Amino acid sequence: MKKTIINLSLGTVAIISSFASAQGGSRDTITAVGSSTVYPFSTVVAERFGKSTEFNTPKIESTGTGGGMKLFCASNAIDTPDLSNASRRMKQSEFDMCAKNGVTSITEVLVGYDGIVIANANSSSVMKVTRKELFLALAKEVPAKDGSEKLVVNPYKLWSEINPALPANKIEVLGPPPTSGTRDAFAELVLEGGCKKYAWIKAIKKQNKAKYKEICHSVREDHAYIEAGENDNLIVQKLMANPKAFGIFGFSFLDQNSDTLQGSIIDGQGPSFDAIADGSYPVSRPLYFYVKNAHVGKVPGILEFLTEYTSEAAMGEEGYLTDKGLIPLGEEKLASVRKNVLSLTPLALNK
Question: Which residues are CB-contacts of 231 (< 8 A; sequence separation ≥ 6)?
């Protein structure tokens, strides 16, 4: 048998090796996919883990939350990701997709909290805006200007057309695509937050939830909202080139780029570490990653990586992830999360 393998061409050996991996062979490096917001936190932990242990540095990829879930839930095969970062909680539909494909034991890890910011170049004025005004600026359909209870295709071109106190600038907002957890959270926390200020739209939720969500979550498609992909650095470059434009991303990214960017004041509160931590900033959300328990023991170092990630040194109130802008959980909550994670407690979304 050994002689046969030696006589094979290098290309054939590579194919056999790849096939073996796909069929449940071995892999010596942890892989993670998912959220661009959680990506920098996981990357920092991975780099420290690689330097301080005998294990390889985990490979972290930024694919967006939704894209990451598709890869993670594809199967339990060894060529699928071990972890999936998420800037919102796993959806029931994703949980069901995982189960359908045999990924039936998943551990959820609450990492901490983040805020979603509407930011512009700090060479411009700080925007003071409400969620209702943001809904009117960015929704696909909005209430008619005459005050009647009907929806019209969004007519607003300038911020000042919504409110004369806002700048007389073209509405131009660069934001994440539909596959992004940040986009999901923005739709829920900002757009819906403004949408339900209209009592007659809010009433639709009781009658037809799908219709209500379509109204409150749909983003206009006439280039006032520009999908800028999962690359937040690209958004920064575009904001520098156009100081009248705004970008949507996580507070942690704003915090890392505070020399060039500033966050807008939303409903009277600006984004800050303390305002997100105490809940006074209205647009904050939890951050997660998910673990494929079937890979623990097959890929070296997963439990050790989870131990490092959920340690006081990383996720604690004085942990190194707070230097990257993560809003920590607090001592008791972190202890609870760590206990569940290290015991690989399976997620049960539908309970």
Answer: 36
Strand partners, 115: 284
φ, ψ for residue 177, nearest 5 deg: -80, 175
Q: Which ranges of 112-191 does DSSP label H, i.e. alpha helix?
A: 131-138, 159-162, 181-186
The structure tokens 């800037």 sit at: 87
Cβ neighbourhood burial of 145 (10 Å; 0-12, 13-18, 19+): exposed
State the burial class of residue 246 (Cβ atoms within 10 Å of its Cβ: 0-12, 13-18, 19+): buried
Paired with 292 in beta bridges are 106
> Which pLDDT tens digit goes with each residue over 221-266?
999 999 987 677 888 889 999 999 999 988 988 988 999 999 999 9
Which is it for strands 83-86 and 284-292: parallel, antiparallel or unpaired?
antiparallel
Q: How far apart are the first and last CA of the chain?
A: 52
The pTM is what? 0.77
Distance CA 247, CA 253 (A): 11
Backbone angles phi, psi at 243, to 5 degrees: -65, -15
Rg for the chain, CA atoms, rounded: 23
